[in-house]
Amino acid sequence: MYKINENYLKLPGSYLFSTIGKKVRAFEAANPDKKIIRLGIGDVTQPLAPAIIEALHSAVDEMSQAETFRGYAPDLGYEFLRNVIAQKDYKDRGCAIEADEIFVSDGAKCDSGNIQEIFSVDNKIAVCDPVYPVYVDTNVMAGRTGEYDELTQNFKDVIYMPCLAENGFAPELPTETPDLIYLCFPNNPTGATITKAQLQEWVDYANRVGAVIIYDAAYEAYIVEPEVPHSIYECEGARTCAIELHSFSKNAGFTGVRLGYTVVPKDLKCGDVTLHSLWARRHGTKYNGAPYIIQRAGEAVYSEKGQAQLKEQIAYYQKNASTILQGLKEAGYTVSGGVNAPYIWLKAPNGMTSWEFFDYLLEKANVVGTPGSGFGANGETYFRLTAFGSYENTVEAIDRIKAL
Amino acid sequence: MYKINENYLKLPGSYLFSTIGKKVRAFEAANPDKKIIRLGIGDVTQPLAPAIIEALHSAVDEMSQAETFRGYAPDLGYEFLRNVIAQKDYKDRGCAIEADEIFVSDGAKCDSGNIQEIFSVDNKIAVCDPVYPVYVDTNVMAGRTGEYDELTQNFKDVIYMPCLAENGFAPELPTETPDLIYLCFPNNPTGATITKAQLQEWVDYANRVGAVIIYDAAYEAYIVEPEVPHSIYECEGARTCAIELHSFSKNAGFTGVRLGYTVVPKDLKCGDVTLHSLWARRHGTKYNGAPYIIQRAGEAVYSEKGQAQLKEQIAYYQKNASTILQGLKEAGYTVSGGVNAPYIWLKAPNGMTSWEFFDYLLEKANVVGTPGSGFGANGETYFRLTAFGSYENTVEAIDRIKAL
């Protein structure tokens, strides 16, 4: 008789955003007249930029003719895309990353979930608390976390690095030595950032203790302050200790388009084995490439027109972030993030828990946010709002919250 | 110090098709004047059907306007696609499969690689020999197979079910009881099929011993004989023992478009736990949906125009299959498959090994095929050709082989 992967049963409840979705659908069904404003899931709302639309149409036309039709993509992704990524995201920033160290994929969520597969199940992970749930949940599924403790809301064998108001929501080096360290800056969910000097400390630490940093740079396009690094490879020594994940979801509005990439430098080695070779093997065996037309859309992100149009799109969301940040401050909330990030992290008022505030906001203001406790024990009493709504809806949501 | 997933080191050499790619590139570099014809990888060559192109353009236009823009897709895939799949691929064939038992993905390769994650690492797998390498390799990576034995070219803990000329390349029920059984009909690589009555025996067996059948139906569109089932759910009792994988790669030319789906019936349970809930959890946590525009392309596959156009496209490849089958027979080869399948399985002549014949064919006829030994020990001395080239190239390749 077959057996299931029992690790799945350790996962408490269902995936955060599925739970939110269910609650919102139930509220909608009960209140069909209410206009709900969604500032919960980090899903974008602005249409694709014209340069991207043009590239998509053109690639679709190529697929209609035998001479220009494309079947399976090369394992790592098309060179036209990997070359421009290596140039614009790395070399232009002084980072020594080559095109053949870039693996194109269908998004950073998949990569951030799959990357743990190339590591031993015995490895110990360290995560920020609060944290993007995918890092933890995928390690639970792999059997790397031990049991869940209802009381602490922690997994027994995970090293949690508290990100609190006291430390500016920036994790401190852990006392227990981890094998894999998940970092994400600008951070999801807190919107916090760290400086290049601070990130350098993490790189030095990882190299010293023999840990790998899985660096999620999904929100780097929102960085406005010069001391905040866009890539971990801006730090010296990162090529021997860091994997970097990139998303096109937030910098180019690709949440429904699906494109991302992961960088595994060839200098990253465990004994004789390069992690590049392991990830290449996984990529080639369990994955079959992002669609050709989507890879062409990714290329257009880096074109001159694309860059100009996306700068405007990001500015649009940044204005939303400012609107939320300033509005909530004016309304007397304790709030952070929202400067170099599309996420605003606020303290639930009047001693409410995260889910109490979720229900309160949904019922009284018909605004959907994300309960901080969904991101970890130290997210309790916090709440995340995102800048990805339309400007009009964002203004209206903040007006409603102010009026509460 | 972190450790890698040591199971990766058990994999012998690199992924079959990567190896072929390297050999072909080396030959090309050394012989730039030679016109190579590729009948190796199962990659299609015909352009996308007009109905699909139209759907893609239309969906791209939707993504250009805020009112019709789509972000993250629903976890299981869009209803418009799941509904039409449930109707056309199942209900119309008398199979009781509902839309919420269908999980849309970016292809059957990913799903066939990922599906094992929801099962215990202790489970024992049974595979045909020869077999599509992804089934075995992904289980190796997961630590389910034990060590590789160079001598037998087998993994110690895998149950291999020989598919030989003697049994018509159809596996027999294994003597040792497996937990997971991978079946693929029409088969890759042999092109063999089994009848509905034969498949019913497998379903009955799986239900009897408590095994799950992972049924890969990637090539069902090529079936011409009425007694060959298109879906395992045509068999009674399959809802309690079978998961089915579907690809759009071969029935709609989507190798570079990326779309597939997996069916997990809600009756498939291990104790109280439905495999549907586990796969839903995996899908929601480690995956983020196929692109909206690609799901619209998938919908167009089932439209009246799409169906008519794809019938022609499949007929085109079927004609290639016949051309190869007949041509090789005329040239004196021992050959099978190619009737209900786009694959032709031939015995290497004159006692050559599979790779010897690969090199011979590449050098003497400049034709690329796939060595049977790459699919398992019992594939040795066999060779796979595919029907996915252009008709002109297929004819020329066979003429060249005949002239050897």
Describe the structure.
With 404 residues, chain A is α/β, with parallel strands linked by helices. In chain A, the strands form five sheets. Chain A has a seven-stranded mixed β-sheet, with helices on both faces. Chain A has a four-stranded antiparallel β-sheet with strand order 13-14-17-16. In chain A, strands 1-15 form a two-stranded parallel ribbon. In chain A, a hairpin with a 2-residue loop joins strand 11 and strand 12. The radius of gyration of chain A is 21 Å and the shape is globular. The interface between A and B is large, with 82 and 82 residues.
In short:
By secondary structure, chain A is α/β, with parallel strands linked by helices. The first copy, chain A, is 36% helix and 15% strand.
Name the features.
seven-stranded mixed beta sheet; 404 residues; Aspartate Aminotransferase, domain 1; homodimer; 2 domains; 17 strands; 15% strand; Aspartate Aminotransferase, domain 2; four-stranded antiparallel beta sheet; alpha/beta
Helix and strand topology:
The structure is a homodimer of 404-residue chains.
Chain A (H helix, E strand, L loop, with lengths): L15 H15 L6 E2 L11 H14 L15 H12 L11 E4 L2 H7 L10 E5 L3 H10 L5 E2 L4 E2 L3 E4 L17 E5 L11 H14 L2 E5 L25 E6 L12 E4 L5 E2 L2 E2 H12 L5 H10 L2 H27 L4 E3 L5 E5 L6 H11 L2 E2 L1 E2 L10 E5 L4 H12 L2
Parallel strand pairs in A: 1-15, 3-6, 3-7, 7-8, 8-9
Antiparallel strand pairs in A: 2-10, 4-5, 9-10, 11-12, 13-14, 14-17, 16-17
